[in-house]
């Protein structure tokens, strides 16, 4: 076959440059200008994300705690497999503590972003003790 055919999934070009694969190279420089409003919006967005993650952590702690209580009940109800249920209960309780710690961490991240957003916007509220 004298003429080589190339089959591409999305484009068909007859005059492809071999070095760049048919694409031209160009350098684009952009200057990023951040304003107080952009920073405020960024902090508010992060605050919302941390709030969502905090709620997920709380839900995980609740679910793991409920499962630990269920396994504790099963250990009493099923004496043959009580050891297995006790081990599973301990694992679930550990997961509940970890999820609670994660929720606590996200709560503090949310508070930090809220405080940063207030500082950027200039509407810092004056509280008596904190």
UniProtKB/TrEMBL annotation:
Q: Which domain of life is it from?
A: Eukaryota
Renumbered to this chain, region (Disordered) spans: 1-26, 102-130
| Membrane-crossing segments per the record | none
- What Pfam families does its record include? ABA_WDS
Q: Which GO terms describe its cellular component?
A: cytoplasm; nucleus
Biological-process GO terms, alphabetical: regulation of DNA-templated transcription; response to aluminum ion; response to oxidative stress; response to water deprivation
Under the GO molecular function aspect, what terms does this record hold?
sequence-specific DNA binding
Entry's family note: Belongs to the abscisic acid and water stress-induced protein family.
Enumerate the PANTHER family for this protein: ABSCISIC STRESS-RIPENING PROTEIN 5 (PTHR33801)
**Protein's UniProt name:** Abscisic stress ripening
């Amino acid at each position: 076959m004298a003429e080589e055919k190339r089959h591409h999934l999305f484009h068909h070009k007859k005059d492809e440059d071999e070095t760049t694969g048919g694409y031209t190279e160009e350098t684009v420089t952009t200057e990023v200008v951040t304003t107080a409003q952009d920073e405020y919006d960024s902090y508010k967005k992060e605050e919302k994300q941390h709030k969502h993650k905090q709620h997920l952590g709380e839900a995980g702690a609740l679910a793991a705690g409920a499962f630990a209580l269920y396994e504790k009940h099963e250990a009493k109800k099923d004496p043959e497999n009580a050891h297995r249920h006790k081990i599973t209960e301990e694992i679930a309780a550990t997961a509940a503590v970890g999820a609670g710690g994660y929720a606590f961490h996200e709560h503090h991240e949310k508070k930090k972003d809220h405080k940063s957003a207030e500082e950027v916007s200039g509407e810092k509220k004056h509280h008596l003790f904190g």
